[in-house]
Amino acid sequence: MVEGKEQNKSGSVEQKDFKDSLEQLYEASFKQLKEGAIVKGTIIHIKNNVVLLDLHYKAEGVLSKEEFLDDSEIGLGKEVEVYVSSLENEEGLVVLSKRRADKITGWEKINTEYKEGDVVKGRVAKKVKGGLIVNIGVEAFLPASLVDIKGVPDLDSLINKTISCKIVSINVKRKNVVVSRKDYLLEEVGQKKQDMLSEINVGDVVEGIVKNITDYGAFIEIEVVDGLLHISDMSWGRINHPSELLAVGDRIKVKILDIDDEKQRVSLGMKQLSADPWQGIEDKYPLNSKVKGKVINILPYGAFIELEPGIEGFIHVSDLCWTKKIRDAHEMFVISDIVEAVVLSLDLEKRKITLGIKQLEQDPWKGIESKYILDSEVNGKVTGFNEDGAFVEIEDGIDGFVSKNDISWTRRINHAYEVLKKGQKLDFKIIGINKAFRQLILSLKQLRPNPWPQIEEKYKPGTIAEGVITSAFPFGVFVEIEEDLEGLLHISEIDKKSEGSQGGFSPQDRVTVSVMSIDKDKKQIRLALVQSSGDRQDTPDIPKEDNDPQEQTNDNGAV
């Protein structure tokens, strides 16, 4: 029994010694933990908002789930680096902080592993004035202007999201880091653009989305590359503005026409997806063939006619009508009119078709010489005047012109409207045909014989005649000695004693004159004053005719 008691006593002593040894070892290991140290622990328990770690020092530590940047970092058995904030709380557990550990190790990493321009990943922690705080191991500032490529997005939508950024600046002394998500995205997009440009080729057909519309075209987004679809490459037909065909957001197919690797842009075409309507145009629209089309544009000098999409013809005002002078195409057309015309010419190089409407009918001037024979008489209506004479309408499409010199054999005419009136109908003699101007040359005076041989016989030099002054000029006065027959009474022939530049004469004064000479070629009569105001003078000598002012008169048969 004694022996047994001794054995029990001995066992108790050994157990006590073992227990003391364990306690000493635990205390020894626990003493290695220091406040402010960074240690590693393994997650052994997760409950509600609390995470429990085995610190491998015969001690356990606790920290909040909020200390983790992402829930993916939390999991049983995961090893976590933490900062020892306190060796014991009320429950006897070590108080830990992952955030402080991350900050300390983060700055060590920043100082040793990163430099400006490097790409880092981080979680957006919160929104602050002017931008965002991004946790990249340390808190970095992301200015709002550097968040995205396209302006400033909704900053709140990025909170708690993990993003990639480029380090813009590091200030170790102030513990400050500035990052840029925009620079990262630009570099990423640039690389994607380069990759895409190396994959596509001129002639490829691709899909894109209409990103923007301008007056000169539309910008098409093809994945990461922007392409310009010029208005001239949208349709073979005429369009006034790209918005007639496209709207922002439309998804369209386009053909790659050119690739600019330097600017990372491509030129696109939409009309090139269909055949060129000008191919074989000579067979579709041969010369002198009749065509129909729609009026799509009107200018004063003509109208554009769409024969089919991409094929237009132009009708000049001169080709609208044989019989009517049209000065503005608006008189004939309105937009969307359907018209018939004749193909007059094709210019393949300039892609132009000239059309005519009047050519649908026979030209009234064709065979004009057989219908209007020289020296025959016609009846016409005076329609207008110019400085040289009057315009006369013979019939629809047939016009004539009478010169002021062909109105009278004897009368001095300065302007045709002195004798003729607009709308007046008269008989005329055809004395010529001007095909270039499409006019008959007419004469009034040649309906009667030339009276100048009889005049020359009747008014021989020295013949005395009574007359009426019709007009006065500085060089003399004109005297009508019979109807429509005038002679010039030169200033040198007027009484030198008379007052005034024309001897005091005025139109309608009656005078007695003597015929000095007649020039039958120039159809001019020179007069001398015989009697004025009851006085009688001898017929003066005929003066020399050199530099005669009468040369200023016209040769229309009047003086």
Write structural notes for this entry.
The strands form 6 sheets. Strands 1-2-3-5-4 form a 5-stranded mixed barrel. A 5-stranded antiparallel beta sheet has the order 8-7-6-9-10. The protein starts with a helix and ends in a 23-residue tail after the last strand. It has helices at 2-30, 98-113, 181-199, 281-284, 368-371, 452-458; strands at residues 38-47, 50-54, 60-64, 79-86, 94-97, 119-128, 131-135, 139-143, 162-171, 176-180, 205-214, 217-222, 225-230, 251-260, 265-269, 290-299, 302-308, 311-316, 338-347, 352-356, 377-386, 389-395, 398-403, 425-434, 439-443, 464-473, 476-482, 485-490, 510-519, 524-532, 535-536. The chain is built from 6 helices and 31 strands. The protein is mainly β and 559 residues long.
Short description:
The protein is mainly beta and 559 residues long. It has helices spanning 2-30, 98-113, 181-199, 281-284, 368-371, 452-458; strands spanning 38-47, 50-54, 60-64, 79-86, 94-97, 119-128, 131-135, 139-143, 162-171, 176-180, 205-214, 217-222, 225-230, 251-260, 265-269, 290-299, 302-308, 311-316, 338-347, 352-356, 377-386, 389-395, 398-403, 425-434, 439-443, 464-473, 476-482, 485-490, 510-519, 524-532, 535-536.
Feature tags:
31 strands, disordered C terminus, 7 domains, OB fold (Dihydrolipoamide Acetyltransferase, E2P), five-stranded mixed barrel, rod-shaped, 6 helices, mainly beta
- The parts where pLDDT drops under 50 for at least 5 residues are 5-11, 533-559
Assembly type: single chain
* Largest beta sheet: strand ordering: 1-2-3-5-4
For the largest beta-sheet, the strand count, sense and barrel status come to: 5 strands, mixed, barrel
Structural class call reads mainly beta
Total helices: the number is 6
From the alpha carbons, calculate the radius of gyration and give it in angstroms.
56 Å
Categorize the overall geometry: rod-shaped
